[in-house]
Amino acid sequence: MGQYFDNDEHLKHEDLRYSFTLFGEEFTFQSDSGVFSKDGLDDGTRLLLETIGKTDLGSNILDLGAGVGPIGLILAHLDPHRHVVLADVNDRALDCCRKNAATLGVEQQVEIIHSDVYLNLDTTFSTIVTNPPIRAGKKVTYAMYAGALSHLEKDGKLVIVIRKQQGAESVEAYLKTLFPSVEKVAQRKGFRVLIAKKEGV
Length: 201
Hints:
The protein is α/β, with parallel strands linked by helices. About 25% of the residues lie in helices and about 30% in strands. The chain has five helices and nine strands, in the order E-E-H-E-H-E-H-E-E-H-E-H-E-E. Helix 2 (about 70-80) packs parallel to helix 3. The termini are far apart.
C-alpha cells in the first residue's frame, strides 16, 4: 500500500473534505486518499499553527512536506504580507493544495511546487516550517533538517513539530549540531514544537 510520501497512481481517489476551527475561524480543506492525515487536522499541525501562526515569520516562508496545505495556506491566510511556497513530493496532495488555496483566496500569495525535499527549491527563506514525514524514514527527514541551513536567509529559522515517541529528543540533539540556537517552544499530547535559528540570538 502506498504511503503519503509516494505517488501511487493506481490508488483510487476519494473526494474528501474536513473542517476545523482555528483562531476563531472555521476552515474546510479538500483531501484525498493517499495523503497525510486525510480525514482531519492532526494534533501536531494544530499545535504548530497555534504556536507560530501569528508570530513574526518574515515574508518568505517554505512549508516543506506540505500535504494538502493546512500549514502553509493558513500561514498565508493569517498575514497578507507573507509569500508561502508549499512543496511536496505527492502530486495528489499538491492538487488538493491548489484547490484549498483557491477556497481560501490566497492563490496570489502562494507557490505550489513538486519537490523531493529541496530538489526543486533554489531560493532562500526567512522561515522553513515542517511537520516532517516520519514514515519516510530518518534519511529523508534528517535531509530536511540539514538542508534547511543552505535554504534559510541570514537569521532565518526552521520550525518543526514532532512527537516524543517519534524521536523528538534525538531530533533536537541533531539540530543542536547544526544550528547555534534550538528551542522547544511548545508541547502538548506528546508533540513538541522546535525552533532552530540559523544565527544565534
